[in-house]
Amino acid sequence: MYALFATLIIICSILLVLIILIQNPKGGGLSSSFGGGASQMMGVKKTNDFLEKATWTLAISLIGLILVSNFAIERPEDNLQTTKGDNTESTFTTEDFSTEPLGSSDSL
């Protein structure tokens, strides 16, 4: 499940970057190179409209994939981290150890 979501997110991200790089920030972009100021070419009214819709679609799908993957990918219960200050380690004091030699016990 993790590999599927990771692959889809990476593909969507790469496509989004490519679509954004194709666009020209001054409005010329890909549409100006396909016939200058012509508003229609081979049945497509404007390339900018397509690129803008593709950008929004990919951006929304990327956000959606990230949110869905956050809930869909299962996490193991034993790898939960403790909060800061919550110390679960056992501590010991020096009173636990005696300084008497092993052979000098009077209780025998």
How would you concisely characterize the structure shown here?
This protein has helices spanning 2-22, 29-33, 47-72.
Task: Explain this structure.
By secondary structure, the chain is mainly α. It has a domain at 1-20 and 48-72. It has 3 helices and no strands. The protein has helices at 2-22, 29-33, 47-72. Helix 1 packs antiparallel against helix 3 (47-72). The mean pLDDT is 74.
Strand content: under 5%
Main sheet record? none
Residue runs with pLDDT of under 50 for 5 or more positions: none
- Which percent range fits the helix content? 40-55%
Distance between the termini: 66 Å
Number of strands: 0
Structural class category: mainly alpha
Radius of gyration, whole Å: 32 Å
**Number of helical segments with 4 or more residues:** 3
Described by the principal axes of the CA atoms, the overall outline is rod-shaped
Summarize the helix and strand pattern as letters: HHH
* Mean of all residue-level pLDDT scores: 74
